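Moderator note: this is an archived Q&A kept for reference. The question asked for a predicted structure of one protein chain; the sequence and the answer are reproduced below.
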Amino acid sequence: MLIIRAARRPVGRGPGGVLVLTWSTDRYRTEDRFDVWHDTLNATHLPWRLNKANERFCRAEIQALDTGVTTFVTCRCDPCAGFRDAKMARADSGDFYGILALQKGRERVRQDNWSVEMRPGDVLIWDSARPIRFDVLESIEKATLLVPKHRLAEVAGTPVLPSGRVNTTQGFGALLFDRMRGVSNQISDFATVGTPQLELALLRDVLNAVGDMRSNEMVSARQALRERVERVIEARFQDQDFAPAVLADMLGISVRALNKAFENSGTTVAMKIRERRLHAAKTDLGNPDLLRCSVTQICLTRGFSSVEHFSRSFRARFGISPRDYRSQACAERSKAV
């Protein structure tokens, strides 16, 4: 897949043309290390441009497992920084996803509208077709799996992955990190063993972890929408014309999308609006300061359009009519006095 052109020491070539190699700045004079590191980074991790401020860069090591389809690269390096701009992204011979697992140190990665400061145990996905920046803040050890999008389409039926941080605290994200760490520790063994099963195992772990990401994103998005709905209901439930269609229009979504946010929650948007109105009316009916207000006035003030509908809903919810509830509340206050 990647033509690794930099100076290297091959460890071996296994079945199917698998190449495992190692490379280190230790072979070079200190004053030459920045330039050879720049060349090696470009040869093993796609083209990057390193910041000149890192010319005093000291040390790096690379091990790469190149199957001709995907590439698995382990990297140890001192602090440095670099980027890929839009021109570099367009110049690639093909589009890739990079799955990066950090084992030691700290690294900040920025792409599109997200920025992740990675710490040991973190995994993220970046897209080679989009500009990206990295800053190694502390000396790191990491592994990167570079997957061509066409290979992803062959395995999963889709060439699209979400970019950003993968949740590695549990589930498939944790398994993905453990797998990548294990491969990093035994990378030279694959020169003789071969990698078809390893590649598929890694890709399955990636896809499963992405499934977790998408599920979590859906849950988070649904929860955020529910919270917005709750806030709008609280502000507008007393308006008699306030209904799910009005609420959906205020949020800029369809009624179907609004109702979908409350699927499997045991309630609906219409039920939540009615529930809020009923509880507000119940509070008013039990308030001695509002004894001069009729039941009709209270129900209309709290968003109901008719006293008949209010009375039916109140009885269905609380098992007592509004008037009887008010009388009961008055009697209980008298006893308390």
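Archived answer notes: The longest helix spans residues 196-236.
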